[in-house]
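Thread: "does anyone have the structure for this chain?"

Original post by V.I.:
We have the sequence but no experimental structure in hand. Need at least a predicted one for the grant figures.
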Amino acid sequence: MRVKIEFQPKGKTVSVNKGENILQSALKNRVAIRNRCNGNGTCTTCKVKIATAEPMVSLPSTQEMRMLSEQALTEGYRLACQTRVYGPILVQIPEEAWKSTVKEQIERQRQEKEGI
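Reply from O.Q.:
Generated one for you, tokens below.
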């Protein structure tokens, strides 16, 4: 079964397999979400906000509860690599993280062109 994820501020909606995590879904569909630990839940760089009133996502993992404050979890923040999707949701990517990811990609492309 497929479910829809809308990513903001990117403005992109994707259809993914039910039970897939948000980070995998984003990367497969070319939506930039920073991550340093390759989805192990140890760096918090993939922190996103679930902006759906009653999100159909997995409960916070033990790893998430260690890495995010109770207040952050209450406000809807989750680690994209630890959160599985079971129904349509709206994911808010923190803009500063999104901008820095785009800048990193542009810099990487520049270096590849220049052979650095």
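V.I.: this helps a lot. Helices lie at 22-28, 62-67, 70-74, 95-114.
O.Q.: and Residues 95-114 form the longest helix (20 residues).
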